Amino acid sequence: MKASHIYIFIIAMVFAAFAVVFDTFPRSTFSELEKRELARFPHYTAESLADGSFTAAISSWFSDSEPYRDTFMELSMLVKGSLRMAASEESVSFHASADFKAVSDSGADDEEAYEERGTDGTEGMSDFDNNITADENAKIANAGIIVVGSGSNVRALMAYGGSSKSGRRYAEAANIYKRRLGNGVNVYCMVIPTATEYYCPDKAQSCTNRQLPTIKNVYSLLSDSVKAVDVYTALGNHASEDIYLRTDHHWAPLGAYYAAQAFAKVAGVPFMTIDRYERRVVHGYVGSMYGYSKDIAIKNAPEDFVYYVPRDVTYTTTYINYTIDELYRVRSESKPVRGAFFMHYRDGNGGAYCTFMGGDTKITQVRTSTKSRRRLLILKDSFGNALPGYLFGSFEEVHVVDSRYFTKNMVQYIKENRITDVLFANNIFNVCSPKIGNKYISFLDQKPGIKHYPADSTEVAVPAVEAEGATMPTDGMPAATPNVTETETAAPTDSIR
Fold first, then answer.
1. What is the DSSP letter of 331?
2. Hey, which residues does 36 pair with through a beta bridge?
3. Pair 205, 166: CB distance under 8 Å
4. S-S: 298 plus which of 290, 392, 422, 462, CB 3.0-4.6 Å?
């Protein structure tokens, strides 16, 4: 047999093997790598067949749910990683994804305008040298993600596209809440920067916009009666510590601790220092940035997920859990149920950020043994999940509402629960999105109850430890989704002395 015939035979066998795998093996339903549910086989209707959407959906399902999807993607990453090692990484180029462009506001950054104008609530804010802890090695990965460092110190950063004019609607939402709620309720505004602001080296600065101008803009637009919470400076003062996760887009629980400390000072409430907490660790954690960056270096640099559970206060946690459909719309809600605030995750579980409350699709109410006559409501995105646990020693009650899931009337909820303090706590991507500000404002006048959607909407069950809103369009940033079969709840009691 000629060599050419042998070559053709081998190629034919390879193609045949792929055909057997992709056409006959069970389809993948969940991607641990991408932290999301994969496409499902579409529901047939005569209308969808006529307009072509049914066949298009079948095509999307077939390509999205191929067998061994994560295995093939990881193999691809290994090949690309090997090629990168052979190439020079001294120069950095940037190709923005659609998601990056979507959060970019029109208008260029104009930091000088802030220095000339002066702003309320920003007088003490400090700008920081971004190379305090950043490794100079940098490369651009998938979807506008900057990967810095090497070896076990690799860190993934999300490029920021907001401008110095961003965040107006977020500030307006805080102002409107204060006007509607009156003098009996304190309103605070917190803008949470991402790790990019502190760890992006000089050579990659052209790939991302500065976040400080946006933060100053938001605080300058607040009314005199809304209190700005400067966490930018608090985090910058501790940038040499593990305040942000390296492999996930969220901050680390330690970063949330310093932010909570800054808030407690502004709110004038007592604060439990870190020595009054039990330190717990999930080893071998690799978060959401592995799947989003498609860079094998992230997987090869796992980190410890360290969180802190208060010792010197007792508390009970009650949830109203939501069931959502595939478009993240609330379909139903549970009666109030008792649960644990801190969930326990095994080492190596990529969903460990859901340690706090198990995720987002719920209303949380924590009653504490603290007798301060102060009751806090936190309006947040997923970054805000890490804040409440540090405030159990500061408030009698802590309520938590996510910007995406709330079915009640906000004014009525605040009145019925005798809320004394409202904190807006959102990451800077959400701050830049007018949709988030509009959503918060809509809560004030919405009629309580569940909206009804077409019967063909697919429901997504929300287990005790549930998905955290992966790739939620209004979340502003990607979010990790745990493999719920690998989680285990904490001790039955949520009161820890």
1. E
2. 31
3. no
4. 290
* Separation in Å, CA 397 to CA 67, 256, 368, 422, 495: 48, 19, 6, 12, 14
How far is Cα 453 from Cα 450, in angstroms, rounded to an integer? 9
The predicted-structure confidence for 51-67, as pLDDT tens digits, reads as follows 777 777 777 755 666 66
If you write DSSP's letter for every residue of 458-469 in order, what string do you get?
PEE---SS----
First to last CA, the chain: 78
At 180, list the tokens. Answer: 């509607």
Residue 318: φ, ψ to 5°: -125, 140
DSSP 41-66: PPPP-HHHHHHTHHHHHHHHHHHHS-
Find how far residue 197's CA is from the centre of its chain: 16
Confidence bin at 177 (pLDDT 50/70/90): very high
The amino acid at residue 50 is: A
189: its two tokens: 């505004």
**Which sign, positive or negative, has the C-alpha torsion 483, 492, 361, 437?**
negative
- Integer Cα distance of 191 and 213 in angstroms: 12
- pLDDT in the model for residue 50: 77
